[in-house]
Fold these 2 entries.
Entry 1:
Amino acid sequence: MSGLFSALIFGLCFGFLLNKARLTKMDTIVNQFRFKDFTVLKYMLTTLIVAMPIIYLMQDLGVYTISNVPNTYVVGNLLGGVIFGVGMSIGGF
Amino acid sequence: MSWIIQQFKKESWNPYVAGALFGVVVALAPILTGNLMGSSGSFINLAGLIERVITPKLADNMFFKYIWKLGVNWQLILLVGVFFGAMASSMFSGTFRFTNSTRQWREIYGPQVWKRWVLAFFAGITVQYGASLAGGCTSGLAISGTMLLAPAGLIFTAGLFGSGILTTLIIYRRRY
């Protein structure tokens, strides 16, 4: 049960930060594709820059071992991304 | 303390600050709980659970039997948290309201309300189909996947931005 409670906490943080970064607005998403508003890239890339060292530091310290890495199957990943992009542009999510 | 409340009441934060904080959150999720923060799988779960209640015969298929384990799992609760987290944030800043579309959207697609709902519905299907095919969405694959240096995340992000830019270019044409 504590596992599911942690999901709620992580979810609350996730939703809160998304809203504060204006990523819950459809215009922000579409304007990234128009190169008018770089919020999406600023947010995503900062997230990666901060998250990657934490993950790999924790692995090197032996606290955590990387598991359940998303599977790579080039055609599926790419085609999925292409289809996803169409919906993301039209729907704004 | 009052500083924190003041920050909570702001409508938006610097995306670098929000992104850095999210970086800590998204890295701690697999370290502390062993789960990646993804949200597209939750919709499969949600749809499957509803399907099992309404049409149990349809839900009794190969996919839910062997490939996908139905149930209230970590990712599903995460989605509930996302919903209420975003809601709390907008209520703190006083920007919470029900709207059908934005001014920019109406300039491009027209003023009809039904159009937004129909487009959002089919865009939702498209997004979920793409995410299921790729094995994740923007949070689960593009961020969490790339964070673990999975090639899948980078390939997905490339496809997403390529087609997103192209689609927007086609829709906006001269107003791009």
Entry 2:
Amino acid sequence: MLKKLILIFIPICLTFTFSAEARVYLDINAPTLIQIPIVLSKWKNVGKTPATLSEKVYEILANDLTLSGFFRVIDYQHLPFDLRRKEGIPEVLFLKEWMPAGGEILLAGEAFLDSAGLNLRLKFHLFDLVEQKDMVGKEYEAPLQNLRAMVHWISDEVLLQLTGERGVHNTKIAYASLQTGNKEIFISDFDGANVKQITSNQSINLSPAWSPDGRKIAFTSYLKRNPDLYLIDREGKNPIRFSYYPGLNVSPSWSPDGKQIALMMGIEKKSDIFLIDANGGNPRRLTKGHGNEASPKWSPDGKQITFISDRSGSPQVYLMAADGSDVRRLTYEGSYNTNPSWSPKGDLIAFCGRVGGRFNIFTIGIDGSGLQRLTSNSGDNESPSWSPDGRYLAFSSTRTGVAKIFIMHANGLNQRPLTQSKGGESSPAWSPRFE
Amino acid sequence: MIKKSFSILILILCIGLIMTGCPKKTMVKEEPSAKKSEEAARIEAERAREAREAKEREAREAKERELARIKEDEAKRAQEKKEFEQSLERKKSPGIEGEYFESKLIKDIYFDFDRFDIRQGDAEILKGNAALLVKFPNVKIQIEGHCDERGTVEYNLALGERRANSTKNYLISLGISGNRITIISYGKERPFDPGHNEEAWAKNRRAHSIIVSK
């Protein structure tokens, strides 16, 4: 679907150039988040474009920017009367005119649906209301059914302009859900839209993992009365069983180059970390001890693997080289630390730790320093999974009753449920960015 | 018993002989010697015949007892087989390949939190399960390792694998062939009791055996 997305990049306002002393809009490394007030003026319908369409665009855009956590969105309906009526991209921006809006940034746009009603063109401009300048203007065109993806591209672009890094609005989250009564694999967009069930085999389906290109998902299923590894398209088609040694074939993690998969296997009558080739063959045991070894996850550079071992008497987070050598223990606090996940920038490990009988999400530096607790007083919180930009974590939480997937900033702020489902969800896995 | 009564018989005969015969020796005039030896031979033959008959009777009775015992054993085995057959419940899990049987005669064992060693009392239960497997050598089982809901999906899968394997190993140590036992870990995915308290958790930390072939 996304392949069909035709992107037209038109830098409309060529008069504007970045100066070397460009204003820092947002320091994403700041300990607390300061939200940028951004004005979203009314979108204009060009030609015979139905009003509902631009309203839809507006709604998705406002939601994206709110969910990103970096913005305080000022809705046009809350603007002074004169500004409320202004729609579309202003040809000339008068600072005085927009001052009463109360924002630092203005995002204005127009939607144009062709006469056949098939192709949609979205055009937007981002203005700095403080320095009175046009920051960027772009236009996207794609088949109408890709409306959401197009709006997400705009949101990503806004994040790039204001934070220096593209957003993750065009990513998805895979997870296991008991919604149907059986544990099946589901996928949802970053904003909770497009929830799609991709397995419906009524078996037990566990721990989904995205291939590095985002096209496939590996997961475990009990279909053949053994926890075997399967591969399925992200559309839910062409499932194949590809690792089915007797005993465990669970908790897959793809190497960044997509050539190998680390997983837990029961070949040695207990769970160990193994590597297999991407086609399921050639299993190599990486862990040699007597403990239970679980939950392997690759480092982003493909050189190391983090995993869980209870060789010390309780489950703790360990790191090792990708050939199984150079094992070292990372966590020493607490008696039950599991579910490690390596940050995309490579500097942090997020994990689930038990404190006072409850499970919570923590991060720790890969040198063992800087332990930070991200959740508290909110039920059990497990299975953290990083967004590809490293700015968010998806995790499961029982704070509202049955476990649901939540998303938060990597510093613990802005925690919110992914979807409005009934729950029974576990093991979120954040996709890479889709190109 | 027969042997004993036979000796008693001989004893009585001897006493009778002493009481009747002996005094006569002094009182009664001696019979002619030919007649006397004829009499002795007759008694001798009589005794041999009795001994032979007693021996035959003994063998016959022993054989009858053996037959009765075999018959009893067969009846017992048939009864056990019947009880076993009756205990079998045919099952099928949706989404998981294969039909199987469950029997209340094969009992579950339970584990402590985050442990996979066999508890003392549960060793006796496994001996019972092993005895049943000895009686029914065609039966093949699958041991399921289960966990309570606390802790993560993956770590519990590892723990369940360990629980199933330690149960399997114990049965092997009792002489059951490893070829008859497969294992599977369900981690925390198939709780026996859906509750969220220690009572439910204790029931869920278990090794449960199903019959995959009988």
